């Protein structure tokens, strides 16, 4: 099966930049999406196809993907950006895979 | 407004069966692939199954293959998940989610329901 690995946690000061990595074999050849999930809520898509933002997602969210690592970057992080973030890609065939998840704390 | 509303979650014994439903409104349902994603208590997201717009392409996670069946009704705009031979490790919140496209593999899941709770005990 295909695995995506993320750091357990990332801490960032308000106004600073948070970077969350997502690693997997040949990940750069796949389309990566990112989701934000706050406690008690359903996930929200924040990035798709590596770097595209859905309507309504702030410009401070950006993404990149190359080699074996995809990265979600939150610029000018705000307190409301706290939560869990999950990457997602498609494995072989028709199987979708989520990353292990990263807890973002804004200190 | 797009709405996805799951139902059918409950407490069931190991080895039992359950059928989850997801009622979809506010969109042209057969323009989109659909998915089921689950989240065990206190844990991360796990993709369960996906189905393309016309049911011609279906995928399952290895953990549910042979036990779960996804289907859709493009007349009444419903997505279903038939779950058989349930195990304790199937305990989770189950979300219905819309793909951004009619075929999956290329885009993300951009609309999610509030979820329904399945407890196997």
Quick recap:
The complex is a heterodimer of chains A (107) and B (121). With 107 residues, chain A is mainly beta.
Please name the defining characteristics of this protein.
A: 107 residues, mainly beta, 3-stranded antiparallel β-sheet, 9 strands, B: mainly beta, 7-stranded mixed β-sheet, 11 strands
Mean pLDDT of chain A: 95
Tell the overall outline of chain A: globular
Low-confidence sequence ranges of chain A = none
Structural class of chain B: mainly beta
- Sheet bearing the most strands of chain B, described? 7 strands, mixed
Q: List the helices and strands of chain B in order.
A: EEEEEEEEEEE
Number of strands of chain A: 9
User: Helicity level of chain B, as a percent range?
Assistant: under 10%
Description:
The complex is a heterodimer of chains A (107) and B (121). Chain A has 107 residues and is mainly beta. Chain A has strands at 9-12, 18-23, 33-37, 44-47, 61-66, 69-74, 83-90, 96-98, 102-106. In chain A, strands 1, 3, 4, 7, 8 and 9 form a 6-stranded mixed β-sheet that branches. In chain A, strand 3 (33-37) and strand 4 form a beta hairpin. Chain A is globular, with a radius of gyration of 13 Å. The relative contact order of chain B is 0.31. In chain B, a hairpin with a 6-residue loop joins strand 5 and strand 6. Chain B has strands at 3-7, 11-12, 18-25, 34-39, 46-51, 58-60, 68-73, 78-83, 92-99, 109-112, 116-120. Chain B is globular, with a radius of gyration of 13 Å. In chain B, the strands form 2 sheets. In chain B, strands 2, 4, 5, 6, 9, 10 and 11 form a 7-stranded mixed β-sheet that branches. Chain B starts with a strand and ends with a strand. With 121 residues, chain B is mostly beta strands. Chain B has no helices and 11 strands. The chains are: A mainly beta (107), B mainly beta (121). Chains A and B meet through strand 3, strand 4, strand 7 and strand 8 of A and strand 5, strand 6 and strand 10 of B.
């Amino acid at each position: 099966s295909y695995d995506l690995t993320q750091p357990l946690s990332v801490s960032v000061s308000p106004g600073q930049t948070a970077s969350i990595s997502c690693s997997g074999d040949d990940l750069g050849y796949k389309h990566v999406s990112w989701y934000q999930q706050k406690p008690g809520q359903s996930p929200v898509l924040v990035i798709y196809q590596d770097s595209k933002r859905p309507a309504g997602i702030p410009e401070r969210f950006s993404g990149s993907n190359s080699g074996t690592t995809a990265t979600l970057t939150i610029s000018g992080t705000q307190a409301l950006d706290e939560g869990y973030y999950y990457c997602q890609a498609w494995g072989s065939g028709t199987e979708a895979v989520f990353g292990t998840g990263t807890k973002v704390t804004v200190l | 407004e797009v709405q996805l509303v799951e139902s059918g979650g409950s407490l069931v014994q190991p080895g039992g069966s359950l059928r989850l439903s997801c009622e979809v409104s506010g969109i042209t349902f057969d323009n989109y692939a659909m998915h089921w994603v689950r989240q065990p208590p206190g844990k991360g997201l796990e993709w369960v199954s996906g189905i393309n717009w016309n049911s011609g392409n279906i995928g399952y996670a290895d953990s549910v293959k042979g036990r779960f069946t996804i289907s859709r009704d493009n007349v009444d705009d419903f997505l279903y998940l038939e779950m058989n031979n349930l195990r304790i490790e199937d305990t989770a919140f189950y979300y219905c989610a819309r793909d951004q496209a009619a075929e999956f593999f290329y885009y993300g899941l951009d609309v999610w329901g509030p979820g329904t709770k399945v407890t196997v005990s």
